[in-house]
Amino acid sequence: MLNLQNSKLRGDLKKFVKLFDENTHDFGYYLIIYDFLEYLDKVSELEKIIRKLKKETKALKKSVSINGLFLLLEKSEYDISILDDIGSSYLLLDITRDTLNNFKNKKSKTKIEIRLNKTMSSKRAKEVFDLALNAICNHCFDLLDKESFLGLTNKANDDDLWFSEEKSLFCVQGYKIAVSRHDKITNIHKIMKYIFITNTDNLDDDFFYSEIAMDEFEDLEYTKDKMSWKKYYDACFRFQAKVAKSTGNKINNLLIFNSGQQGRVKINPKYLPHK
Predict the structure, then answer these.
(1) Which residues fall within 8 angstroms of residue 224, CB to CB, at 6 or more apart?
(2) Consecutive 10-residue runs of the chain (275 residues): their mean pLDDT?
(3) Would you give the distance in Å from CA 227 to the centre of its chain?
(4) Are residues 129 and 20 in contact, defined by beta-carbon separation less than 8 angstroms?
(5) SS3 of 254, please?
(6) What pLDDT, on the 0 to 100 scale, is given for residue 212?
(7) DSSP string covering 112-158, please?
(8) What pLDDT is attached to residue 154?
(9) d(CA 95, CA 80)
(10) CA-to-CA distance for 115 and 33, rounded, in angstroms?
(11) Residue whose C-alpha is closest to residue 126's, from 96, 98, 105
C-alpha cells in the first residue's frame, strides 16, 4: 500500500519530467533541471536520499571537467549506459546546476552561454538529461516506497548524524536542530560545515581551531592573536547548550572541545555512525 504523502511527492517529481518532455526551447531545459535539484534539496522526505547521493559523488565531482562533460553530451555516440549508475545521473545534473550558477554570478557570461547553448541544441544531450531526470525520480520513489513498507519513515535512527549546509540544519539521533536562522551564516554554521561537509569522511578526527580558522574562516591572523581561540570555543559552547536544550538534555555532550590557542573540537565518538 502506497504512503499517501509519498504519492503526492511522486506526482510533484513527475511534473518536472513532464515539463522537460513538453519544453520546446533550449534554455528552458536548464531551468527545469535547476528547479528540479532545488526542489530535491528542500523536501524533507528526500533529505537522507539526496544527502547520500551528494556524499557518494563529492570526490568524483572534483575531478570532472565541465567542458569535457558537455563536449561528451554533444556527441551522438555518448554512452547512455553510464546513467545506469544513479550517482552518474545525479552528478550530471548537479554539475549542470553548478554551471548555471556560474553563468548567473559571473560578469563575463559569453563563454558559458555558448557552451550551454551548444550542448542543449544537441538532441543526444536532451535524451541524456531526460534519462537522468527519470533515473533520479525512480530512485527516490523506490527508496521512499521501501521505507514506507518497512515502517522506517520519520523514525529516529541512532546512526542519524548530519548537517545540511543549505538549510543550516543539524540532526543527531533523529533530533533536528536549527544551527542558523534567517540565512545568517554564524560561526557554528561554519564550524559544522568544516566538520560535516569539508571533512565528511573524517568525522572521527580532532579539528584544531587553528585549521578551522585558516581553512573555513580564512583567518590568517589566528596565530598572532592569543585570544583568537575564544571565538571557536564560545561557538562550540553555545551549540553544545543548544543541543542539550533541544533534546531535553538527553544529548548534552555532543562535542568534546577545549580552550587555548592549541584548542580543538571533535564529535563525541558515542554519537558517530556505527561502522
Answers:
(1) none
(2) 66 94 92 96 86 84 73 61 75 90 79 82 86 93 81 54 88 90 87 93 94 95 94 97 94 97 96 76
(3) 34
(4) yes
(5) coil
(6) 97
(7) HHHHHHHHHTSHHHHHHHHHHHHHHHHHHHHHHHHHHHHT-TT---T
(8) 47
(9) 17
(10) 16
(11) 96
Burial class of residue 62 (count of CB atoms within 10 Å of its CB; 0-12, 13-18, 19+) = exposed
Strands 175-178 and 207-208: unpaired
Chain position carrying cell 523536501: 43
Query: What is the rounded CA–CA span in Å between residue 62 and residue 29?
Result: 24
Cα→Cα distances 274→52, 148, 154, 193, 256, Å: 16, 23, 20, 21, 18
Q: Residue with C-alpha cell 538527553?
A: 250
Contacts 24+ apart (CB under 8 A), 62-71: 64/91, 64/95, 66/95, 66/98, 66/99, 66/115, 67/115, 69/95, 70/99, 70/115, 70/118, 70/119, 70/125
The answer to whether the CB of 29 falls within 8 A of the CB of 96 is no
C-alpha cell at 226: 592569543
Residue identified by cell 538532441 is 123
CA–CA gap between residue 151 and residue 101 (Å, rounded): 38
126 closest CA partner among 198, 32, 206, 244: 32
In this structure, what C-alpha cell is assigned to residue 261? 590557542
Cell 551548444, located at residue: 118
CA dihedral sign of residues 241, 196, 194, 261: positive
DSSP 183: T
